[in-house]
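Cross-posted from the bioinformatics board.
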Amino acid sequence: MKQHVRAAITVILGMTVCGCGDQYINERLLWMADRAAKPVLAREASGPSYLTNRAVALYEKVIERDKQSRYALDARLKIGKLYLKAQEYERARRIYDDVVAVYPDNKEAQAVALFEKAVVYEEQGQWAQALIVFNEILQNYDQTLRSFTVPQYIAQYYVRQKDEPSAKKAYALAVDYYEKIIGKYPNSKAAMTAENFIIRIYMDLDKPAEAVARLEKIGQTYRLGPDALLVLAGLYQEKLHNTEKARQTYQTLVQSYPETPAARAAQKKLGNNEAGAGQ
Amino acid sequence: MKNEQISGWALFRQSWGGALELMALKRRIFLPFGIIAAIELLGILALFLLIQPPWVKYVQPLVARFWGPAFLHYPLNLILLMRLWYYFQIFVAAVLGTYMSALVMKAAEVFWQTKQIVLRQLILPLLRYYVGVLLIGLIVIGLVQWLGGIEEKILGKILRKGADFLGIARKDWLLVFAVLGIGTAGFVQAVFAYVQPLFLLKNKNILSAFVINFRYFFKNWLPITALMLLPLLFYLPFAMARARILDVMQAAAPEIVFVLLLGSVLYSWVLNTFLTVAVTRMYLLLEGDERGAGQR
């Protein structure tokens, strides 16, 4: 009996040790660090340095375990955010440069790090330096997801600065950039993402008719997803005040993608519209 | 019923007291549900391992399909563990728990005849009742699950209504429905409490057992409902913690899930033993059978 008990305990302990493998420990450390970083990042102003240091120390533990893991990448990017919040710009940029150096084969990670580095320059009031980094992303990382956000981000910066002529120019350049991507990689995921960003820009510029035309054109070639249909219906309803087209699009969404959050939202809109019409 | 004059309070008191007395005198009565508890503990471990590398690749598509890929990562994987373990617990309860319940029931009956606890001698003879008790168990479990599903749908609708529906905050609705879920489970078990004793101890066929059960229940609904629901009050903290598990995990640590699961296993072990013995006692008192309540 004692032997059986001992064997059972050995098996249980062995299995537990196996279960608490690298993934579990790394994710746990990252979660703990995120929990420590959350109040620091949520503040309007930079908080007490001991809170930042505590969160950074936890992220560094993740990096120590495996410097090249995706967990370490996540930890590095978050340390950068903490330093930015603490207005330690030089340290933040150094962290992002580390990411570019440590992950030479990970273009997406490099683009993200460079983007964050540019944001650090922006926060410091060095927009010209930020633009240099943004351009580096556009030239060398043109198929990464993060690179797509760059042209729109630049234009939005000028909008925030209330610099209308620069914003107008930046939006035009952005559309041009996305059109070039569509031409360079036709029928690809990159082309679809570029289409998506052109629509976003039309919405930024409050040009709903152009956004709708673009979406309808995409819909002729590809099957629009639930979120795209919801956006299209919303544009018809709220911007173009074409209730009939809005209703048809909501109905297509509900029929084509039932049980999706977008379909539920569409169903609600249909209900509201009917109630509104009834009154 | 030969013994209808017994009052509800006396029925409740004697069943409760009789069960506690048996459990205090003969600890071996805990053994059948102890085996279930051991299986459930091993189940926690096995399921935890299943959602970790390297075995996670086998369940990855299934988890991604039903819960989403985020549930394969910490801390949501611990919520997934809780969910999977819940299904495992239902499976064990149906396949083995019903038989163990029959074993405890018969052992309790023998105890009140001979003051002895026999378990080993009952294992084989009771096997011929296995299909019957399994069927009864499946009906009751199925009903509890069905009603639980309806409650979940209602909760979903309430939560979609937005914040503070009927002046109750969203988070508090989770607690309300946790209590309601426990209450429903207890009540359904009370409604069908005498089916198994009638089938097992009086050799009634399943259909007659259900019919007679309702007669027993409607004549003595209060003591059996109280008997089933009162011990469940102690389970409420677990149920409430589970209902708001994300908050609990954030406030303490995600590993609190293991404490909750362990607590549930231990509590179910004691509760199932107690309820089975107490229901047997109540049935025997009602039946007025000399083997059981004759000594009263």
